[in-house]
Design brief:
Order of helices and strands: HHHHEEHEHHHHHEEH
Structural class: alpha+beta
CATH class of the largest domain: Alpha Beta
CATH superfamily of the largest domain: Glutaredoxin
Largest sheet: 5 strands, mixed
Number of helices: 11
Shape: elongated
CATH topology of the largest domain: Glutaredoxin
Distance between the termini: 43 Å
Strand content: 5-15%
Strand order of the largest sheet: 1-3-2-4-5
């Protein structure tokens, strides 16, 4: 680790001197002396180390944001208009929030009230749910049920199912899903039949493929505007990003 950092700093310090002399033309003795000077300088001025690391991290962050922007541009239709994902909030909102979620994910459940509050209090956000079951059979069962409820009963009942699944802390069993259908007055037989359909399997498969292409490996994963956010976010963090998006548009 130390040699890596020193190597980075050596290059950073050497670059401004390149115009004055050719480092590559140095003898071994001259290079050793130069490296010794760099080392002594860093020991006397350790704050330079943190400054260089900060600059490097900022540069890598900018590069990562640029790469994510390119991915979103390339996959825009699959992200924002796939034809099967639930779209809530204001369908014509000026900012779109996309969430990749798993109903068995603890961090998704922690994010749920923040997402609900953001969408409700803002009033101008288009909210898209990507069913992304990655935590086992119960996750897949829950996602199949939610997607099937949307197919059979429509968006409003899907949202009711989504809310129940997000608030549910127990296991996801066929019995629990049957009780949920009864509570909501849904046709459970039709939903059960749809759960094994090719249409539902295709929807989940496409979402998995999209997540892989976007390098979203866990849940929750968010896209806000043209930014990919991998991991849990607090309400105020989301609000700040939304404000920044709107401000950047003038």
């Amino acid at each position: 680790m130390r040699s890596t950092i020193l190597g980075i700093l050596f290059l950073a310090l050497a670059a401004p001197m390149a115009a004055a002399f050719d480092i590559e033309s140095m003898s071994e003795g001259e290079r050793a002396a130069f490296r010794s000077e760099v080392r002594d300088y860093l020991l006397e001025n350790p704050e330079v180390l943190m400054e260089a690391i900060s600059v490097l991290e900022a540069r890598r962050e900018r590069e990562a944001v640029a790469r994510d922007g390119e991915l979103i541009d390339r996959l825009r239709e699959e992200i924002f208009n796939d034809g099967f994902s639930y779209v809530g909030g204001d369908p014509n909102g000026d900012v779109t929030l996309v969430e990749f979620l798993d109903y068995r994910c603890g961090f998704c459940k922690r994010a749920y009230p923040a997402v609900e509050e953001l969408v409700a209090s803002d009033g101008n956000i288009r909210y898209i749910v990507k069913e992304f079951p990655i935590l086992g059979e119960q996750s897949t069962l829950a996602a199949q049920y939610a997607i099937s409820a949307k197919l059979v009963a429509g968006d409003a009942d899907y949202k009711s199912v989504h809310d129940i699944l997000m608030l549910h802390d127990g296991t996801v069993t066929e019995g629990f899903l049957a009780r949920t259908s009864r509570e909501l007055g849904l046709d459970h037989d039709a939903i059960t039949e749809a759960m094994g359909s090719e249409e539902v399997a295709l929807a989940i498969g496409k979402t998995h493929a999209l997540a892989k292409a976007l390098n979203v490996q866990g849940t929750p994963g968010f896209i806000l505007g043209d930014i990919i956010l991998r991991g849990f976010l607090e309400l105020e963090q989301m609000r700040e990003i939304v404000a920044d998006i709107r401000e950047s548009r003038g």
